[in-house]
Amino acid sequence: MSTEHRLVHSVLAPLVALVASEDADALARANGLPAFVDFVRPFGQRLEGRVNIRDAQGQSSTVDGFSLRFANLFQLEGVNLEAVRRVLVDAVSSCHSTSSTPLSELAAVRTAHLSVLSPWYSLYRDYVCKFNGASEHEAFNHPVACIIVASTMSPDPIGQLSQLYPSSPDQMPSIFNNGFIDPQISLKHYLLIHDASRAPSVDADAIFAQMKKQFGLSCRLIKINTKKEGSDYSASHIWDAYMKEYQPLYTALNSQSPNENAEPQGDFVSRHSVGARTFSEAELNCSVLPITSVPEMSAVGAADGNLFAGESSDTRPTYGSLMSEADVKSLDTFVKEFIVQSLLPSMERSVQHWNEQVASSRRGITGRLFTAGRRYFGTAAPAKTTSGTPAPDSSTPYPHISQELILRKLADYSFMLRDYKFAYSMYDSVKKDFQSNDRATKHFAGVQEMLALCVLMSDANLRGNLESLLDSAITNYLDAGVSIYATRATMLVYEMLKYKENYKDASALLLRMIGEDSDLRSAILLEQSAFCHLKSSPSLKRKYAFYLVMAGDRYTKCGQRRHALRCYRAAQQVYEGQGWSLVDNHNNFTIGRLCFHLGDATEAFSHFLKLFKSSNQSPEQQASHMKEFLHIYKCISAQRTVTELENLPQTPVPVLQQQSIDVSLIQSQHIGQTSANDSVWDKMEIDLVENGFNRPGCARPVKLMKTVRDGANTICAVGEPVFVSFVLENPLQIPLELSNITLAAEFTKSVASAIVTDLTDRSGEDGVRLQNEFFDVEYLPGLVLAPKEVRQMQLKIYPKCEGDLLVQGLKLTLSDCVPITISFNKRGRRLNDTQKQRSEDPVYAADNTLKLTVTAPMPVLDVLFHSFPDVLLSGQVERTVLEVNNKGNRGLKNLKMKLSHVSFFGVGDAEQIDYPSYSSKPIPEMASQEILHITNKISDASIVDISLLGEHETSNGEGVLVSGSTTIIPVWVRGDKIGKHTFRFLFGYQSEDPNDKIGYRKLQYSVFCQVYPSLKINAFTRPSTNVLSEFILGIEVENLQQSEIKLRQFTSISPQWKIKPAADIEQRKDQLNFLKGRQTSFVYFRFEQDGAKAGKMNPSPESTTTEAIANFIINENQPFSPAPIDLTISNVSMRDEQVVCNSIPFSSFAQRSRTIWRNQSLMNQYSGIPSEKVANIFTLYFTDDADIVLFWEAPPLHPGGPPRFGHHFIIGINLSLQSPLQLLARIGKNASNLTFQSRSLYAATVAERKTLIDSLLKPRQKDVSPLRLILESEKSFTHDFSKSGDLILPFSARLRNTSWENRVLFSLELPSNESNAALENDFSWTGATTIAGTLEPEQEISIELHACFARKGTFDVNRWKLNVTVIPSWTGGGGGAVGVADAGATTAHPHGASYVQIPNLPYLVTIH
């Protein structure tokens, strides 16, 4: 039999009333027991073996585990309720789990037995189920028999037996006067107790023989207390478990006054012996179970496993100390024989009798009609009471003699006899009567309860909706005001559902009994519901935690703080890490408060700390939490030592953003500038060192300093302040009062080590500076962080001697109460060097910026931009001033600046501080073209040397910025690209001290700017049809602004080309000068060669570049030194003044923009060449390159302000007809013959080398014929054809070879007379029709042609065909002199490219 079945059987077992004499109770007290009923009670649960039971139909069956309950006849009406309430609260408070499994281990909790996890539930269940008294709605607590006990110690035992049981109804206990209990107990049994040690002279057998004569066979003699001295047998275990449960109640009852309603039978102890009892309706409404608020009880005795406080194993009496083993067996035998021989037959007879007399009659048609008539047309007259039977109480709807109550008793007896099927039918039969009676709500609830239990207990498939039955039973019990029976029904059915592992329905059942009338009951049932959700399949962990929180809340309300804390801790294990801030806040606040009230202030402190984070708490809640937190800390600090306080968990507010920590040698000027850990800064520093400090010819190369990426220390000098900046955040919605704010640091002297860590001593305070032996720190007395405020802060530390200084963290005091130390734990950059680092969890490098290496005095650079624009138009140029300060203790030299946006800036010298953005002069004072001398080499324009000359000079002529001095440098900024930009400036500098071991120091600076669109410019070029050495340039200008923009000047920059205005530009100057908003205009110019420079560059930039590529391919490291060139700057001004272009800042912008475009273009065309090699192969300009510049003027940004000036570039125009690098063809033809060194820098295999060569020699643009041809003649002629006949006119065909390297073979073919005759109104060429020849590079010739016209008209004479073959110069091939057709046409060269040219534009001649 399962534990659950045994529990139900023990709770609803037959109840036997007992009446004992004072002598019998004295014998029980001699064995340490309060009364004789307590002496025999355990033996009702000790029945071993199976017993035979006959059902209502007379069928016999055997059952095991049959048990009895014993109760004092005079204690059926109940005991003192206040005592029971107090005992129950103490019991639950003192009860602890005997399981070693913590509730946080969910898997172990799922498999553990619930009675082990929560023994307090079992205790509560037993008080609810086992201590219910007799009630009018059921017969389980009505006595089925009565045992009358007397002792041989009495002078007249037989007479005493006759007098113990009341002889008349007036002497019966008052509960029998209510009418629902039959006072005529049919089965009476008489028991004689003999203690030979106390009545040695009494002949017990003779007295027993007289008893049988007077009372019949229902008599029994038992001899007890026969244990001999020296016997080691102990019977105490029989009563231990029972008295462990009942003794606290006895103690509480004996501390109260005697029950006023108790009958004057026996002594005080016997009147208060615990047995079955009943409660009146009023008493049940304020039952012992609805407990709402009780004080916290001490858990004394819990350590040794005792369930109750105040009772230890040392003080507990030894029960049954006089009982021998034979005495125990005799009592077991008596109980078993009483059950088998007396009790069961008596109950079986009653069942058969009631079934035949009442149940059978109701099953017939007459009985049904009679019942229905009584139900609907009134009730029958009350049955007449027999002699000796008291009249029923009018408050009782059904007396014990009514058919309804007899049927209920029949069903209860059948249930106790394990005939569940018959009991179910009887309950179902009588429930209709109770359901129709408004006064029988309690009766109907009881029937519904038993129907549910029958369904669960029976092996037969009984029909019944379990959920409906339970819901009806609980609802009606609660409506009747007897929640104790609703609780009992819930618990009994819950036990059976657990047995069937139906945890889903079990949880729903428990939740029905959750109410506001009893916090303790609700807490216990909510906890059981939580376990059900965890044990269900699948396991519902979140619901488990949810109901544990609800249980903890109810435990808190009823004062059970230890149980509440246990529930909240178990629930928090599930919720932790889920990110549910409201749940976490509630749990941590409640756990913290419970821990504090239970004396664990440290644990309370740690949980309150978890509340101080960004959440949805209201400001009022957070203020309340802060107040309690400060109170807890004050309590802790009053009891703990300083060391113990330092070991407390770290307070989480305020929040220090670790990645915002920055260490610099100057005070931060711009909050929000990009982090010093940005990889962009690292790349800029590498470039600054390699191409700045370590450029070729550097006198003293330096090593790259370890930066954050390498875990480098911060280098500082003695006497200079180090600025530690960080961001403090207040995540709360209440202000935080902070005081005593300073840095915590540790110093190690370079020679003798000394550590200083305590910076809180204010004895050395000097203003805002705390003085220590080796360093000083800044001190802030206090500040207030507003709610949700994020504040950038900066504190200084002043090293006093050389050594190592570690900045450990930040020290402050919260609300002048809680000292806080926030450690600095800044991490370095994320590592992405290996595949593992990139694919797995992020790995970060170490950060040592907070480790300061203090050296000898050094310079400290500080810079500041004055009037730096935050808004620009595209192309706009504004001047700003860079202020350079040396705040260190040594002179500063070799100052360099690395730019992140090269094309945006032009940097001047200190002497140029007064230069305007654009200088202009009247046109008569300057020529229309200027000369700009450049080296024609691609240089790194991102690194600028800032001249310090004029301040101070070293012995070798280097400029020095002495300590404490300042200089200013002009810087012009131009909006080169549209968008938001972050400009980064990396400054590097060195100390004037020649013994300086650091090499260089750096400073990072960044500013922001927004660039908006202004103009959009497009351009195109085409060869001129009139002049061989001219191109037509067309420029489209669109104003993207709403306001008007003035066009000031067009400028070209080229080695040998210049622009001239078109014919109509002088007339359109006024129109072009003003370009309205959203307006587009077109301007045309002529590109013509500068005759003074054409063909005079030797060597040419193309040949220099071709030779460098050849050297690169064969891996020869030859120096690259292109010849300097003079750029021709030609200007076309729209005004009476002209912008000067060969001076700062325009010359700087022009070269930087050209350099950037050239680098990007070459990298796209020649991807096989490494970026660092491009500058050593290609020149900045080729011969036929040209750039166009448009200068403009825009209205002021603000009314009354200065106008805005700017310029736009069109870069990359090449006016050559052939590819500039013509010699690459020669390299390509002989690539297989090139001799490679055994080791190639960029090719590890032959295949890789071939790929590299193919990439370099691949044509990069569409190649066309280098030969140009135009016709020249008069355009109009007058001729009289009637007099002079046909007209023969001369024409000049001018040919030019535009190639600067190769010769060309040409063959000019003119249409024959036959072909021209086929065309109506046409002309015919006369003379030679095929002319061939050779042109040297850049050679130009003129050929005389003649055409014959036979009539007047307008004729297109541009009809010819030109065959061209290019002769590469490296072949050495020759041609012939210019000749006529009969000289023979030259053939195509085997290595040259061939072209066929025909005219695509007309050349018109008019003959009048």
How does this structure look, described?
This protein has 1408 residues and is of the alpha+beta class. The protein is built from 37 helices and 53 strands. Strands 8, 9, 11, 13, 14, 15 and 17 form a 7-stranded antiparallel sheet that branches. Strands 10, 12, 16, 18, 19 and 20 form a 6-stranded mixed sheet that branches. β6, α9 and β7 form a beta-alpha-beta unit. α18 packs antiparallel against α19 and α19 runs antiparallel to α20. The longest helix has 39 residues.
List the helices and strands and how they pair.
Layout: H1 3-11, E1 15-20, H2 22-30, H3 36-40, E2 50-54, E3 60-64, E4 69-72, H4 81-94, H5 106-111, H6 114-117, H7 119-130, E5 143-151, H8 157-164, E6 188-194, H9 204-215, E7 219-223, H10 236-254, H11 268-271, H12 281-285, H13 325-363, H14 365-377, H15 403-416, H16 420-435, H17 441-457, H18 466-479, H19 483-499, H20 503-512, H21 519-535, H22 541-557, H23 561-575, H24 581-597, H25 601-609, H26 619-637, H27 642-646, E8 655-656, E9 662-664, H28 679-693, E10 714-717, E11 722-729, E12 736-749, E13 765-766, E14 769-771, E15 775-778, E16 780-785, E17 790-799, E18 803-814, E19 818-823, H29 835-839, E20 851-855, E21 861-866, E22 871-873, E23 877-886, E24 892-899, E25 905-907, E26 920-922, E27 929-934, E28 943-945, E29 960-961, E30 966-974, E31 979-991, E32 1001-1012, E33 1015-1023, E34 1030-1039, E35 1045-1054, E36 1057-1061, H30 1069-1073, E37 1074-1075, E38 1080-1089, H31 1101-1113, E39 1125-1133, E40 1137-1139, H32 1146-1165, H33 1171-1174, E41 1185-1194, E42 1204-1214, H34 1224-1229, H35 1246-1257, E43 1267-1272, E44 1276-1277, H36 1281-1284, ...
Parallel strand pairs: 1-4, 1-5, 5-6, 6-7, 10-20, 22-32, 44-53
Antiparallel strand pairs: 2-3, 8-11, 9-11, 11-17, 12-16, 12-18, 13-14, 14-15, 15-17, 18-19, 18-20, 21-23, 23-30, 24-28, 24-29, 24-31, 25-30, 26-40, 27-39, 31-32, 33-34, 34-38, 35-37, 35-39, 35-41, 36-38, 41-42, 43-45, 45-49, 46-48, 46-51, 47-49, 50-53, 51-52
